[in-house]
Amino acid sequence: MYKCERLSKNRITEFRRLCMMSAGFNPLNEDFFENYEKASLTRQLFQRRKVRLLKIGSEFGGFVWYEYYSSNTCGIRALFSIEKDNLDTYRMLLDSIPRCRNIQYRCVDNGYNFSILKRLGFVKNEGEIEMRLGLEEVEKLLGEQRSYGEGLVFKTFEKGKDEGLRCCIQNDIFNDSSRVPLTLNDIFFDVSREYYLEGGSAFLYKDGECIGYGQIVIDSDMPFIVNIGLIPGYRGKGYGRLLLIHFLEIVRDRGFDQVRLNVRSGNEDALRLYRKLGFSIISETYKWQLKR
Prior knowledge:
Strand content: 35-45%
Strand order of the largest sheet: 1-2-3-4-5-12-6-11-10-9-8-7
CATH topology of the largest domain: Aminopeptidase
Oligomer: single chain
Order of helices and strands: EHHHEEEHEHEHEHHEEEHEHE
């Protein structure tokens, strides 16, 4: 028998136990207790009101923590059922969210959770794919006989000199109506961060015109290739492959044994290139949506 109940102070211990297990369903499940114990008593009360606990028999075996974005739209901050394959438990939790017709949930594929969300009626929207290339594959690519072609030159980004160029070229590369254009302050902020790798950013020139850009950042001692791309008119000509290999060379020369990158799931051209170069998928993250 299943029943959903509100989170109260005397159920905090049981709830904490479930929270500690919830990353098994989705590593992106947020930590309720990260700020809870630092909050005022009033704030704690409001936070508890956004949690529903699932009682299975006499024990608590699941929960949903949600946040309203508007009067009828909410996002799930964490979802978990100890009976991981039991759809009825998830349905009970989702149905316990009041006054919400549109539910959103960001989730990393773990081999079974995507199947559950789909069977619950969630629809998968565009997401992000993380890919990896090991040192052996890097060495193979760098060992290829390749020509940069006439008029192609790589130029390393220089602080205090190239911020304006980088701002313009990135805005040209990633021009999109849904994207807020970069400003010079964004560039100055980026190069001041701990993740920024000196000498890891470069432009690609063709016959004196800057046509591409990319950079390497360090996240938890792992190199990631980011912000890589070509301006319109120069795509599909093999320049993207050369640009990517240039950054693989930097990664190899810095002594790393692998490199990673993230790509939008809908960017088929980029995915095709990365697969062709030997990159493999290590994680997929999507925003799922349920309309009731």
